[in-house]
Amino acid sequence: MTIDSALVEEAKALGLNLSQLAEEALAKAVSEEKSRLWREENKEAIESSNEYVRRNGLPLAKYRMF
Fold first, then answer.
1. What is the pTM of this model?
2. How far apart are CA 9 and CA 23, in angstroms?
3. Dihedral (C-alpha) 59, 62, 65, 66: value to the nearest 10 degrees?
4. For residue 11, how many other CB atoms are within 10 A of its CB?
5. Is 8 within 8 Å of 18 (Cβ atoms)?
C-alpha cells in the first residue's frame, strides 16, 4: 500500500491516528461496496416490489397513522 508521504507527515503533525483513520475508511468502503453489490444482486426483486406498490399502493396502507 502506498500513501502520499506529504499527506502522512501532515496528518502526523496534526496528531491524527493514521491506523484508526485507515481502518475506518476501509470499513466504510467495504460496507458501501457490499451494499452496492446487494442492491445490484437484488435489483429485479426491488423493481418488482416497487412496481407492485405503484400499481396497487402500499399493503396495509389503511392502518397507517400518518
1. 0.72
2. 18
3. 80
4. 15
5. yes
In the structure, what pLDDT confidence band is assigned to residue 66 with cuts at 50, 70 and 90?
confident
pLDDT of 52-63, one tens digit each?
999 999 988 888
Burial of 36 (0-12, 13-18, 19+ CB in 10 A): exposed
| CA–CA separation, 20 and 29 (whole Å) | 14
26: cell is 476501509
Q: Is 52 helix (H, G, I), strand (E, B) or coil?
A: helix
7: which 3 cell numbers?
499527506
